[in-house]
């Protein structure tokens, strides 16, 4: 009994550390970290590029084309009218989406 108590006490005092064996080399770890960092930078760069394209398109549309006051796109987007009297709105990537007059909504409908 005394021996069993002594063994249990020693196990409590000296915890058994079991660690998994690391099979990757330092070069593999660096390569993996560089790949993750590269993907994060690419993702951030795409967001910046899309926002820049959106702002450039909307800025150009506001200067060159007319803003259609009182009417909005299917999801509440600002509507522009180009020189050919076509209606369009600009998405988050700076692309123009042309819509028909029937697709436009009033202020009251939003």
Q: Regions with pLDDT < 50 over 5+ consecutive residues?
A: none
Number of beta-strand segments: 5
Q: If helices are DSSP runs of H or I spanning 4 or more residues, what is the number of helices?
A: 2
- How far the N terminus sits from the C terminus, by CA atoms, comes to 80 Å
What characteristic shape results from the CA principal axes?
Answer: elongated
Order of adjacent strands in the largest pleated sheet: 4-3-2-1-5
Strand content of the residues, in percent? 15-25%
Helix content: 40-55%
What string, H for helix and E for strand, traces the elements in order?
Answer: HHEEEEE
Radius of gyration using CA atoms only: 31 Å
Largest sheet: 5 strands, antiparallel
Overall pLDDT confidence:
82
Pairing-aware structural class of the strands and helices? alpha+beta
Task: Give a quick rundown of the structure.
The chain has helices at 2-13, 26-64, and strands spanning 66-72, 78-81, 87-90, 96-99, 105-106.
Helices and strands in order:
Layout: H1 2-13, H2 26-64, E1 66-72, E2 78-81, E3 87-90, E4 96-99, E5 105-106
Antiparallel strand pairs: 1-2, 1-5, 2-3, 3-4
Question: What does this protein structure show overall?
Answer:
The radius of gyration is 31 Å and the shape is elongated. It has a domain at 65-110. With 110 residues, it is of the alpha+beta class. The chain has 2 helices and 5 strands. It has helices at residues 2-13, 26-64, and strands spanning 66-72, 78-81, 87-90, 96-99, 105-106. The chain is 46% helix and 19% strand. The chain has a 5-stranded antiparallel β-sheet with strand order 4-3-2-1-5, covered by helices on one side. The termini are far apart. A hairpin with a 5-residue loop joins strand 3 (87-90) and strand 4. The mean pLDDT is 82. 5% of the residues are buried.
């Amino acid at each position: 009994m005394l021996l069993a108590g002594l063994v249990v006490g020693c196990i409590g005092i000296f915890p058994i550390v079991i660690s998994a064996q690391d099979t990757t080399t330092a070069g593999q770890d660096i390569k993996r970290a560089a790949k993750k960092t590269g993907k994060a930078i690419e993702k951030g760069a795409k967001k910046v590029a899309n926002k820049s394209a959106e702002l450039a398109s909307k800025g150009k549309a506001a200067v060159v084309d007319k803003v259609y006051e009182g009417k909005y796109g299917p999801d509440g987007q600002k509507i522009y009218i180009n020189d050919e009297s076509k209606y369009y709105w600009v998405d988050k990537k700076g692309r123009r989406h042309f819509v028909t007059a029937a697709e436009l909504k009033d202020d009251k409908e939003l």
